[in-house]
Amino acid sequence: MVTFLLLLLTLVFAGVAIALVRQSWGRPAHNGAAAPSVALVTATAPVQPAAGKPLTHLQGSEPGWLKVAAAEQLLDAVQAAPSIQHMLRQSRLAQSVWEQDLLPAIGRYAEFVQLMPASESHHHAHAGGLLSHTLEMLLAALTWRNGCLLPQGATAEDLDAWRDHWTYAVFFAALLHDIGKPLTDLRVAWRGQLKQDVLPWASVAGSLVECHAAEYLVGFAPTAERDYGAHAKVGTQLLQRIAPQSARSFLACHPAALDSLVKYLNGEDRESGLAMIIRKADQASTRKALMHGSRARFDSALRRPLIEVLMGALKSMLARGGELPLNRDGAVGWVYNGSVWFVAKRLADQVREHVRANSPEEAIPGDERNDRLFDTWQEYGAL
């Protein structure tokens, strides 16, 4: 029996499909220059956070360059103040403790990642995306931590006695979750005030502020060169740089919490209660960005988002009329009540074949990964 797609593509025949792709997923074509600038979407677009007015004061001396900024400027750029106040309340720590141990870590993290993106073409790919994503994760993780018993299986007395230590562990796990991305995914160049030599930035050398950089340029590493194993371990290496000494000392008073944090940052733990909190927070921030976040990204991003590839193929196939037959015997889909219902496997297979035939340079999951296509449609609210 034919299994129909248990997903609803919110398209109303070809006209709406075309409009949907054009309005939500469109992006100016790359100009093909050998050394593209790194401005958002176009070389002339001003630096702009996910929400708020353009931040022209953070643009560098040339198109694509960004000024190295202090923590206060960066947090203001992503409008972090309300989230940070909510974090304080959710942490259930005294304000003096928060300001001594955790708030400085947020500032150091901000100076470390500057306005770098969280991804090349997926979620939070705009300027300031990595910082915005991390702040969203922090608030979500601290909120959900209050509904979780850490460590799992502990007595009521131990849960109360070690509560703040586990809150610290959750906080730093969320804060440092993606701090390896600048090392593995990005290629950042910087120069000093005199704008002489352009130097590659190695995150292990310290933040751009510590390197006395004046401005920086963001590029992206080829996929084949990205060492995700290194990404998983950078968090542990940078824990001492980001966390104040007082916070590290407090964590060390409860070795179980510190050990859980280190294992998570080393990529050795993905199943504990702490790991589940961070995964849930990461997924929530990612889902929110894909559904409602900025579609802007750096002009140096060469990879098109998979959703653009998929929706572009659907648009083209529906516009041609015959590639995705509708409302007849042997059809791939049926138009009903303002929506189109498709047969799952046939849709995924035919979209993949269309992409391979018409855009062979685009990367698309293989024949056995239809689930990846459906996940992508679902992430962006297209089904």
Question: What report would you give on this structure?
Answer:
The chain is an alpha+beta fold and 383 residues long. It folds into two domains: 13-27 and 304-379, no CATH class; 56-292, Hypothetical protein af1432, CATH 1.10.3210.40. It contains 15 helices and six strands. It has helices at residues 13-25, 71-77, 81-91, 95-113, 129-145, 156-161, 163-175, 181-184, 228-242, 245-252, 255-265, 273-292, 306-320, 344-358, 370-379; strands at 65-67, 186-191, 199-200, 215-220, 333-336, 339-342. Strands 1-4-2-3 form a four-stranded antiparallel beta sheet. A two-stranded antiparallel sheet has the order 5-6. A hairpin with a 2-residue loop joins strand 5 and strand 6 (339-342). The longest helix has 20 residues, at 273-292.
Characterize this entry briefly.
With 383 residues, this protein is α+β, with helices and mostly antiparallel strands.
